[in-house]
């Protein structure tokens, strides 16, 4: 039994660090989103361009980390504990994927400096769509973390 606890801690103890790093990146994403949303239309193009580029970079990094690091670890943990988390993940992943597509569409449109400046007229509308998708994504991800990881913290410790 002691060996099982030790083994679980070794396997899943690092997941908290991955999630913490990922959530810090989420915070950075929110800050950049708010910063871009609050730039006045009269601001210099370089202000827009720089903030859009930063937002796009953090957005893609955040989405990628979710799909290729965090979700993978959460699914492994859910399989190990086999307590119903896989069913939740199967219900939530298609919804998360929809938000991924919205985020990647935004990135595809605005990640090019010259092209991004051509699209400033529709930026508020595009930011609004992105914001709605991110809000939904964060709620879904928090559900995954709560069900697939937080419920196992005591068992891992």
From TrEMBL:
Keywords: Transcription, Transcription regulation. It holds the Pfam family Rsd_AlgQ. It comes from the Bacteria. Transmembrane segments: none annotated. The keyword Transcription applies. InterPro entries: Rsd/AlgQ_sf, Sigma70_reg_Rsd_AlgQ. Belongs to the Rsd/AlgQ family. This is Sigma D regulator. The gene is rsd.
């Amino acid at each position: 039994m002691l060996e099982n606890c030790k083994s679980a801690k070794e396997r899943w103890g690092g997941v908290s660090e991955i999630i913490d790093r990922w959530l810090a990146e989420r915070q950075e994403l929110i800050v950049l989103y708010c910063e871009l949303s609050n730039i006045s239309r009269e601001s210099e193009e370089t202000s827009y361009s720089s903030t859009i580029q930063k937002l796009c970079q953090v957005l893609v990094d955040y989405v990628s980390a979710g799909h290729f690091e965090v979700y993978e670890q959460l699914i492994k943990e859910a399989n190990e504990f086999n307590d119903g988390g896989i069913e939740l993940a199967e219900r939530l992943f298609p919804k998360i994927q929809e938000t991924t597509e919205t985020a990647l569409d935004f990135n595809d449109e605005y990640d090019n400096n010259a092209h991004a400046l051509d699209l400033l007229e529709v930026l508020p509308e595009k930011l609004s769509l992105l914001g709605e998708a991110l809000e939904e994504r964060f709620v879904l991800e928090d559900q995954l973390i709560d069900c697939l990881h937080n419920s196992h913290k005591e068992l891992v410790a």
